[in-house]
Design a protein that fits this description.
There is one protein chain. The protein is an alpha+beta fold. It has one domain (21-115). Helices cover 22% and strands 25% of the residues. The chain contains three helices and six strands; from the N terminus they run H-E-E-E-E-H-E-H-E. It has a six-stranded antiparallel sheet with strand order 2-1-3-6-5-4, covered by helices on one side. The longest helix has 15 residues, at 3-17. This is Lipoprotein.
């Protein structure tokens, strides 16, 4: 590898390593955030120290069955039904990804959360 191609490769790796993450600062909504991120009442990702923080993301899953509600946080039985394997989950929020996937079996992206 020549010095010029090495510099180009290092630059490309440096640029790519800072892009494409799904950490709290890289996404807008909890359904796209990593476990540990926090969200406000409308599931917009916020800093966990923010006064608006109401939920902590525990994990995510996909489902072919439409969850209850309109995508805003839903507590109670829905959390048990969809997030029973995420200890402490008290609510879910979801988004419909059919237009992105075209696959009904994985259509709904569900985020499992607990109240802060």
């Amino acid at each position: 590898m020549t010095r010029r191609s090495h510099v180009a490769f290092v630059t490309l790796v440096s640029v790519l390593s800072g892009c494409g993450g799904t950490g709290p600062s890289d996404v807008d909504y909890a359904v796209d955030a990593l476990a540990g991120a926090c969200a406000d009442q409308k599931t917009v990702v916020v800093d966990c120290d923010d006064d608006k923080a109401r939920w902590r993301v525990l994990g995510k899953r996909s489902s072919g069955q439409r969850p209850p509600g309109n995508g805003d946080p839903v507590s109670g039985a829905a959390a048990t039904t969809y997030c029973g394997d995420f200890p402490g989950a008290t609510a879910i929020a979801w988004s419909d990804r059919y237009s992105q996937l075209g696959d009904d079996s994985q259509r709904f992206k569900i985020v499992c959360m607990r109240a802060l």
